[in-house]
Amino acid sequence: MSVMKRVTLIFRSKANKALDKYEDPRETLDYSYQRQLEMLQKVRRGVADVATSRKRVELQMNQIQQQSNKLEKQAKDALGAGREDLAREALTRRSSAQTQLSDLQTQYASLQAEEEKLTVASQRLQSKVDAFRTRKETIKATYTAAEAQTRINEAFSGISEEMGDVGMAVQRAEDKTAQMQARAGAIDELLASGALEDVSGGGPRDDIQAELDRMGAGNDVELELQKLKGELGSGSTPELEAGPPGQAQPQSTNTAPPRTASSNGEQAFPAADVGESALPSAEPPRTGDGT
User: Fold this and answer.
1) How many CB atoms lie within 10 A of CB 70?
2) CA–CA dist 91, 78 (Å, integer)
3) Which CATH number goes with the domain that contains 92?
4) How far is CA 183 from the centre of its chain?
5) 56/174 same-domain check
6) At what angle do helices 25-80 and 84-157 cross, to 10 degrees?
7) Would you call 7 helix, strand, or coil by DSSP?
8) CA–CA separation, 284 and 102 (whole Å)
9) What is the pLDDT of residues 73-118, one digit of tens each?
10) d(CA 289, CA 291)
11) pTM score > 0.70 for this model?
């Protein structure tokens, strides 16, 4: 295949695809029906023209027939008057008229047959046009219903152009809403942490008080944690404290009771565990002379 043939084939295929894209079957059917009506109209005009020609031939035949009858009468009158020469002339003209009449009769028969053929063709074409019109309307109705169903299905599935634009608008609105919610939450957290100042509070922000509040919140957490540890420690079983059976328990080397903190921050021992050496002596100090 030559280069020009390939280029022509590609161009035709592209043009055919573009035409298929913009072609509406309903418009094509209407155009075809219009062309068929025009053709039927031409056939009918042809039938009318043939009938007109036939009628004209028929009128000529009648005129020639009348002229032939007149010449025959004139020939008889001339013979009755003893004018044989006039009678011969009238018969000669009558013979020529008869020849013309025979030719016109042949044309008349031909035109009549042509008229009958065109009339039958017109009737057949009329039947085909009527059948095509019925089929055209059925195809158009089916195509319209299929097009409507396709648009409905595309709308339900969200793949149509209009619904696609709507879906994109909804998605953009949801994204903006989520962004604003995230921004509002971030601002709330920054206001709660003190990183941002609430200008509607009516006064300057107290950094020291905010720090004390955070420390108080941390102490509350530590107290809750110690409480949970105490509850877990008091709920331990004796077997776990005594250790496994058959194993000697280690002797505690530290028999001193736990120290407690006084109110002034100094460590103190319980009074019952303090030895006598730690208590002040009740006896008075002795002097050097023994008194």
Assistant:
1) 14
2) 11
3) 1.10.287
4) 34
5) no
6) 170
7) helix
8) 189
9) 988 888 888 888 888 888 899 899 899 999 999 999 999 999 999 9
10) 6
11) no
